[in-house]
């Protein structure tokens, strides 16, 4: 295959040499060969035709015929077929051959036709016939963009479409992105990014950008801003940059407080990240492998505007360097990157991860959840919180393998993603404490009552006794299922959430503020009307991980040490403080008020029902997991009792089941509805009719006795 047609020169008697095939050129590093002088007449067939295209790629059918017209004989061979397949013939027969066999089955792309080729360009396994080896000539297409040879026409069309979706619309083996005219500029939180037209389809683009994840990006930004107030500067990593929107927002708003590193393993994404940095007037610091080419400088002049862009696998970059803040947002599950994330993360640093594999986490694909997270789950009324606890359990086990414990700061499960933010605590003792909070859950499939299995390794004779319900005794068969292992600890840290809310107000993140208020109420298990921006104990002092941390409202005499992290002595001393002022931990899981409603009864309004439960002496709050969910420490039996007490019949006819209210019982001054009056009158008439019919029947039975009386 040295030259495309040179091996067939002896058979076809053509004194033409075409540049080497793209397959061989790719093996030699994609070095372009300059065509010889004898090739000029071939290249003049189409003046605007690129020189490195295969001869089977032409604009017009006449261009293929001109390749055969180079021979002066009357009989002309086909330029795309070997002589043993198609012998030389007259021009009219050759025209029909090229039109029917090559041109009609071609694949069109941007004015070019990729005709089917029968030359020996594609290596085919030989067929042994006796003692001779015959090389089979396979029909194929040559890709106009890359060096691939595709056999089927439908596969070729799909191959070209994948190039277009990735923005690769020019030929030669170097991947060339789409022209800038096809790019779209999106603005979010005062940050501009360029995206491809198909940016919202992750399977078809390298630089994925989802506008629906704006709330997720705002929550992560608030968490990073809180960490930046504790120590400065901090090194933060966006392990899956895509367009770089998240890292650009960090650097643009937090400035000198952070040193941002944006990583992506795709070359197109890295190129787009660099262009977006220039678009936002940021400097780009190249990684170690690219430092020889110098530093790419944007319009910014300050060192705080420098962003480091790396092109490597996320596991590699987290193994090589240490960070204070790491965010993982791969397409799908993030369990493959947890070990690397916790390997080098610094003490009291933060790891946040966004999981978008909701089909497995929300128990739609239970076998996938078992494979990825090692967790058995089923579809329940609290499936979103179950998903969050499943992810945290996997995070806890990964951190414990690195002798690190975690403190859950935030866990959010919405329609499109599950976000978990944890603080890392170094040492075997925090690791053991965190690992003990990973337990199994006993779930009743009849009434959906649930309880975490008791600690200990001893086997119980009857695990059903741990459930508050008596479904096992009243129902036949097995009524409960064992779920997990799951995280059994708290899902929120009230102090951290309050500081996140302050940062959201400071930077004007309107979408995150309502959710953060709901999370604070959920963490404290209170209703929204009792919400306040400061804790009742000390407005300026918040507590996390056993460490008291001052908020930005305090003076310079705070526990924060700017420039570097706290010394080990200060960390050990503060870590030993007890949580004396810390409120009780919020109850796990929640109940859906619709799931436990009584048939034929109207439920009370949700806010009124929360007040009824609170008046009964239980802690109660709404939950972001479910708009109709109620988080409370009340058992399910009491929950249903209060719900039944304050429910009303759906229709008037149903009042017959309850206590009968006679007209004489109506209090003075009350307005009696007209419908009720009519109902009462009809009932009285019916009673009179019944008594009259009974008297007539009695008279017919005993006429003599009645007449005597």
From TrEMBL:
GO terms for molecular function: tRNA (guanine) methyltransferase activity; tRNA binding; zinc ion binding. It catalyses: guanosine(27) in tRNA(Tyr) + 2 S-adenosyl-L-methionine = N(2)-dimethylguanosine(27) in tRNA(Tyr) + 2 S-adenosyl-L-homocysteine + 2 H(+). It is found in: Nucleus, Nucleolus. It comes from Ploceus nigricollis. PROSITE patterns: SAM_MT_TRM1, ZINC_FINGER_C2H2_1. Residues 143-163 form the C2H2-type domain. Belongs to the class I-like SAM-binding methyltransferase superfamily. Trm1 family. The keyword Transmembrane helix does not apply. This is tRNA (guanine(27)-N(2))-dimethyltransferase.
